[in-house]
Amino acid sequence: MQMLSLAEELKQNAYPGRGIIVGRSQDGTKAVTAYFIMGRSSNSRNRIFAVEGEGIRTEAFDPSKLEDPSLIIYAPVRVLGNQTIVTNGDQTDTIYDGLKEGLTFEQSLRSREFEPDAPNYTPRISGLMQVENGKFSYAMSILKSNNGSPDSCSRYTFSYENPAAGEGHFIHTYMHDGNPLPSFEGEPKLVSIPDDMESFASMLWENLNEENKVSLFVRYIDIATGKYETKIINKNQ
Hints:
about 240 residues, 6-stranded antiparallel beta sheet, 5-stranded antiparallel beta sheet
């Protein structure tokens, strides 16, 4: 698979929607993830990322302007032991609860499907990172409508064992802007992952569409110790 420029992928796409990136730093020592949200409506844009425990939660920047919280207020990131869950909806909680009950990542998501936001039927994208005893692996998932039809759900899971240093994968909800919004297609995109969290976060934020970007979360986890560093950028401040 050809490695793509993450900067160019973002710069050339005014509306990828929500995106998850997971991979391994160039020096091989860090497990890396990033999650961003964008918005076209005032309700979607009226959000920030806030720290909640070891994860984060979306919150209304101006609570008085919050309209429908059902699909925009959720915990995108939660941590269960040595596992970090990153998603674009409340399926974070579904995965968390499933893992606690002994289900796999894929099994946990069997009870969910794409979002009920006709006519877009936004895909549910999810990532699961596992860092244990100096080893790192991750999986990504997308649940989407059948070519825009809500009658059936297409489920895809991609697993990456012992990922190569400097490599990661990027999955996002929409191929590009449109009405209705077209769902992501194909495998997660192969992208490079640098060593420096600050420069990585800056690159992502600077290349997201200025009008549509809302918030960004980046985390670097030390594979040897499990300790992590986090960066959050909110457009609303």
